[in-house]
Amino acid sequence: MSKLKIAIQKSGRLNEDSMKILKDVGISIDNGKDQLKASAKNFPLEVFYLRNGDIPQYLKDGVVDVAIIGENVLVEKGQDITIAEKLGFSSCKVSVAIPKGKSYNSIKDLDGKRIATSYPNTVNQFLKDNNVNANLHIINGSVEIAPNIGLADAIVDIVSSGSTLFKNNLKEVEVILKSEAILAVSPQISSENQAILNKLQFRLQSVLKARN
Ligand code: PRP
Ligand code: MG
């Protein structure tokens, strides 16, 4: 019997809520916490615990059929991946921030500036849409430190509670996009697994309705 392969964030903010929603739809997963792969006991589902940024490629290649990821990750590298369901948790923004003491009037102020980010495609699109030229510094984490160590004039990163910006003496000046957790689908899903996905989505929809 075929099983639907789902990717879940291995660790980090989405992991816990993703596991919770699977539990709420009545799927119980054998969870050796260190396992990178687990099976559901009562639903034809296999769970793969992966790094966020790797998930879009796995979807494109059809290595997994579906994934719970942040919409922002799809915007960054998920062309031709469809969104089956918005899941209503893990809301965040992708925003531009600058040091608190600096003045800011408009997007044009970013012209010629150095921007540190982990989301180069998203930032480049934003700059292009606004006719602004800036230099990107791509870093993979702790982006908010960049202005304080003189590496950048501004950053673009995820803002959730705002606490990381606050602690690093930064202020949000532009919101590029708003994001939440979504169920994303591989363009390569088989019809057999699509049928399993339909059942999963049906359950998800009732849980989401009840949560509202
Ligand atoms: C994420 C993100 C922001 C922060 C936003 O970083 O990159 O820095 O959370 O959340 P907040 O607004 O609630 O503070 P994370 O802690 O996951 O670490 P990383 O950037 O080093 O991966
Ligand atoms: Mg961070």
Describe this structure in words.
Residues 51-205 form the ATP phosphoribosyltransferase catalytic domain. Keywords: Amino-acid biosynthesis, ATP-binding, Cytoplasm, Glycosyltransferase, Histidine biosynthesis, Magnesium, Metal-binding, Nucleotide-binding, Transferase. The chain is α/β, with parallel strands linked by helices. The protein has two domains: 4-90 and 181-211, Periplasmic binding protein-like II (D-Maltodextrin-Binding Protein, domain 2), CATH 3.40.190.10; 92-179, D-Maltodextrin-Binding Protein, domain 2, CATH 3.40.190.10. It is 29% helix and 29% strand. It contains six helices and eleven strands. The chain has helices spanning 13-24, 55-61, 71-77, 120-129, 163-167, 191-211, and strands spanning 4-9, 37-39, 45-50, 66-70, 82-86, 92-99, 114-117, 135-138, 154-159, 170-179, 181-185. The strands form two sheets. The chain has a six-stranded mixed β-sheet with strand order 2-3-1-4-11-5. The longest helix has 21 residues, at 191-211. The protein is elongated, with a radius of gyration of 19 Å. The chain starts with a strand and ends with a helix. The mean pLDDT is 95. The protein binds 1-O-pyrophosphono-5-O-phosphono-alpha-D-ribofuranose and magnesium ion (MG). 1-O-pyrophosphono-5-O-phosphono-alpha-D-ribofuranose binds next to strand 9 and helix 5.
